[in-house]
Amino acid sequence: MEEKLEPLALVATVLEREGSAIIAAWTAAEEPRQILARLKIEPAAFGADFGSAILQYFIDVVRGQEKVGDCPALRRFIDFLADRRISVGDLFILCMGLRRAVGDAVFTHCHAHDSAAALRATSDALHALFNANLRGVLDLYYERLDEMDHRLHELELLGESKDRMLALQERQAVLGEMIGAISHQWKQPINAILLEIQGLRDAYDYHELDRATLDGSIARIHRQAEFLGETIEVFRRFLKPQQQVGPFQLQQAVEEVIHLVGRQYCNHGINLDIENGRPLQVIGLRNEFEQVLINLLSNARDAILRQPGRRGQITLQIGQADGFAVLRVHDNGGGIADGFESRLFQPYQTTHQEGTGIGLYIAQLLMEKMGGSICACNRDDGAEFTLRLPLTPE
To answer: Within a domain: residue 1?
Structure first.
């Protein structure tokens, strides 16, 4: 009889036994294969150069011999991809492809040898391991961006080229926010699906599995799967480049952002409300608008979390005035620091040590690029940011 292992020990064992098959499945999957093809990299060479080292890194992490999210193998992997100007979206897809290949191998083993409870425990352990690693990969990627920013300072690059680089850095930060939100969004539906699977197995074991029970479980699993699909589809749309301004529904764009970040903010004890939502069609760049909104919500969240014991509230009000759609984002995070309002939208201006000071500067550039505007003031117990975008002609 096979020895029962702890969840993470089981992951390490499967990685050691099935390493070659996992690497082959990773590089042969459709989306990773397409990315490698665009980069003109042979999947077999990619797997040989990085697959074994990265799998060994995971094994060492599980055994406490390596730091989560940082090792020479990962740094070499990031450097290799960065040198080829890979986008953060492609980096995310490659990471998720590896996660899927490892998960399939582990769950195939669990399905053959372990109970549903062991499967859930292993799934949770694997989920936590990959989330920590994904954050580490992004941190390494941001280190590269910091190096680029340092070189910009040294060379004193000015004007449009510098703004493009800052915009890229800010976009990567927003993508990091979105990835963090997605991890929160996915955990509950995945747990619900696993519980449904356990329920089906129990019903079968106790001879209670009839057609109605089966159909009910399938319907609930399908709803959870649709939610997961909607979340990743929003992320995919955000990754698509958008060169020209065009019409989009403001309410829909706001709701997509809330769909992505809502559960994460709820876990922080922050309530998000949309008031006076109206179907207004505006002219602009939808992806860039969503980037601006994510930045404002992130700033509001951080401000609220710096107020111990406060029940967070962020309110978004949609209206129109003088041919413009108006979105007001109000929080109860204590407001803008005294004397800082006049410098709020200047680059490298921040009142917090962990801040970069470029988010609001880029937000202003993006809003003006779309023919709109952004302004801010203190109101009641927090800050209020007002975004304006031109309405489509009637």
So the answer is: no
